[in-house]
Each structure stands twice: as C-alpha cells, then as structure tokens.
Amino acid sequence: MITVAIPTYNRSAIVVETIQRLFLLDPPPAAIIVADQSAEPNRTLAGWHEQGRIRLIRLDAPSIPRAMNEMLLAATTPLVLYLDDDIEPSPGLIATHARAHDSDETWAVVGQILQPDEEPRHFAQPEDDLEFHFNHDSGCFVANVMAGNLSVKREHALDVGGFDENFVGAGYRFETDFALRLVAAGGKIWFAPDATLRHLKLSSGGLRSFGDHRSSPSPAHSAGDYYFAIHHRPPLARYALRRLRKNVATQYHLGHPWTIPTKLIGELRGLLLARRLARSGRRLVRGLVRGSQPER
C-alpha cells in the first residue's frame, strides 16, 4: 500500500495534470496527499479533496521539508512515495516502488529521473554519491536521493526525524541530508531504474519561484548547501571554496561578469544564514510514539 505525496507551489495547472496521470496508473496509489503552499487556493484540488479522491493540505508559507513532513505525518500506509508536481510517471511506477521495498533492510527507494532531453545511460559509480546520476540504467545501493521520485518506509522515515526544516528557501541538499541520516541509522537506499519518470522541469513556480540561482543575491539558493556541509562535510571553509569554484567560476559568469558581485553576495548571505541555523539545532519531527502522531 503506497501513498503518493506531492508538494506543490505556484503550479496550479501542471499539478492537476500530474495527478490526472496518477489516477490512470495500474495499480493506482492507495491515496494521494498534496501539500499546496501556493497563496491562491487551487479549485480543482479542493474539489477532489471534497470528493475524497485526494487529501489536500494547505500550508501558509513555502517550505519543501515542512511540506514533506506534513505529508509523512498525514499518511497512513506503510510506504510513502514522494513525487514532483511536474512529472510524467511510467505506467508501473507504483508497483515497481512496492516491489523494491520487499527487503526489510531497504528503508528507501529512489527511482530513475529523466530530465528534459535525458535518456537512461550507464555511468561508472562515482566515489561520492553527491555526484550520482539519476538517469543511471542499473540498480545499486546509494547514499543520496532526489525527492522527486523517492519512496520511504514511513516508520523508519519518522524514526530518523523526517526532513530537517532548517533547509530554508530552495532547500538545496535537504533530501541528501535525509538520505545520509537514514543510512547512518542502519537503513539502505536502493536506486531502482525501472521505477522511472520524466521530470518536466517547468521554468516557473516551485523552486524557480526563488529566482535565478546564478545571479540572485538571495541566500535561498546557497544556505542549504552550506548547512549540509556543516553537518556532513567539514571543514566548512574547504567545502565553501569548492562550492564557489563550481558555482561562480562558470562559463555563464564569464559571459555575464556583471552577475558575479550579486552571486557572491548571495553566497555570503547563505553561509551566514546556514551557520545561524546550525547553531539553533536541527528542526526534525520528534517524539514519535508507536501508533500516535509525533509532536513537532
């Protein structure tokens, strides 16, 4: 039994199309939960909620890890499958995720994700799973995930505290942080290439609501990566220098040098915000009692 959980933000049309595709799957999900963080209510989603076809959760501010946690708490099935709101699922997506959870040692399954213009292909296993390619064509155990095609055993996901809500803004690396905590707790994560979908990667709404990460002075795009590094990749200074080389010394910035100062401002603000969030402690789902709702 699988509950599909979809976070959505400012994508009223495409999320409806995605859910219509899910209705047609064979087998369909046992339940669909949508966490809508948009300012304006979606009438179609509200109608489906009233009809009992989906469960709609309305959130007052955008936060992808909070949306993920709220849906994890609301689900009642043993498995929860997180999907992006702009996807084309393969016909057997639900059944494939369910089969991949047959082993007790597998606590999460991440499926193949084909971005626009991508096809499945074979890659050598990287030394660091941060570089894993999710259009890979072979099954393997991993320590990294993408939350747009991720199923979890609900009990174990709650036991590790769910998703850390200190990943603010675009929430970069929030799902990798979750994966590493899951593995550290004794679970395994299976990459299942046959659980495949196409990610449409819309240019508006969702994470794109936070602006262009290449030129924005906002900390929304960088704070998550620095917060991740504080917990998983010390020393922070070395990681920060590596990030700057990859994100500022790029072909785009060489061709648009006027964007470099604002990008550097965004990086500095993200670093300072990450350090402040880390000092405040993680924001996880806590206090789980078997058979009851955990306290926040």
What does this structure look like?
This protein is of the alpha/beta class. The protein has two domains: 2-199, Spore Coat Polysaccharide Biosynthesis Protein SpsA, Chain A; 211-280, no CATH class. 35% of the residues lie in helices and 18% in strands. It is built from ten helices and nine strands. Strands 1, 2, 3, 4, 5, 6, 7, 8 and 9 form a nine-stranded mixed β-sheet that branches. α6 runs parallel beside α7 and α7 packs across α10 (260-280). The chain starts with a strand and ends in a 16-residue tail after the last helix. The model is unreliable at 287-296 (pLDDT under 50).
> Low-confidence stretches at least 5 residues in length (pLDDT < 50)?
287-296
| CA-atom Rg in angstroms | 19 Å
Largest sheet: 9 strands, mixed
The overall pLDDT, averaged over residues, is 90
CATH-defined superfamily of the largest domain: Spore Coat Polysaccharide Biosynthesis Protein SpsA, Chain A
- The portion of residues assigned to helices is 25-40%
Order of helices and strands: EHEHEHEEHEEEHHEHHHH
Looking at the structure, the CATH topology of the largest domain is Spore Coat Polysaccharide Biosynthesis Protein SpsA, Chain A
Instruction: Give me the CATH architecture of the largest domain, please.
Output: Alpha-Beta Complex
Strand content: 15-25%
Principal-axes geometry comes out as globular
Number of domains: 2
CATH domain class name of the largest domain? Alpha Beta
Structural class: alpha/beta
How many separate helices? Answer: 10
The tally of beta strands, per DSSP, is: 9
Straight-line N-to-C gap: 26 Å
